[in-house]
Amino acid sequence: MNTAALVKDILVDVLQLSSDMEFDDETPLLGAIPEFDSMAVVSVITSIEETFGIEVEDDEISAEVFENYKALVSFVEGKV
């Protein structure tokens, strides 16, 4: 299972981005992608939970987790 690829698929799907959008470790997320608002955060977390079979607690969610693509992937990898 390629965690980074699955996280990218989730972001593309939930945020309705172009499927050819490139993500690298430093790609900024929250505040940089207009579609990535507070409602999208909830949808992304829900999709991550369903895809990876994990549970994300409210106190684990912070701006740092959504700072950039690498931070989000690292967070998911730490939960799996």
Automatic annotation (TrEMBL):
InterPro entries: ACP-like_sf, PP-bd_ACP. Residues 1-80 form the Carrier domain. It comes from the Bacteria. SUPFAM superfamilies: ACP-like (SSF47336). Pfam families: PP-binding. This is Acyl carrier protein.
